[in-house]
Amino acid sequence: MDHLTPQQAFDELRSNPNALLIDCRTEAEFHYVGHPTDAVNVEWNTEPDFEINPLFCETALRVAGHKNRPVIVICRSGKRSLDAGAALEACGFTKVSNVLEGFEGDLDADHHRGTLGGWRLRGLPWRQQ
Fold it and tell me: pLDDT-derived band of residue 105, with 50, 70 and 90 as boundaries?
């Protein structure tokens, strides 16, 4: 698995229109916190118990179309996406990348996100519903 900064992930998506950005956060996070523009939500964990989604790989394949499509995975801080990316590789996906820092970045000293890193802090395109 490759590891990309948010800027590198954005640049890869712009230079390779076939690349797919999967946001593996919960549907609530995706919609209410915001998400990278053009990201597709495929939950790694599901509400309400935060269980691993047993259909994650199946859903990702349906969205991607084939296992050779480049897939970039993002989550809140870049940690959940590591597990999701590893699962995609175990399912046979051949080109998987993880976005370091995720969408919101790590917690700062005051336990706030969005101040130390992440897609949103880096000023990359995102939207909120």
Answer: very high
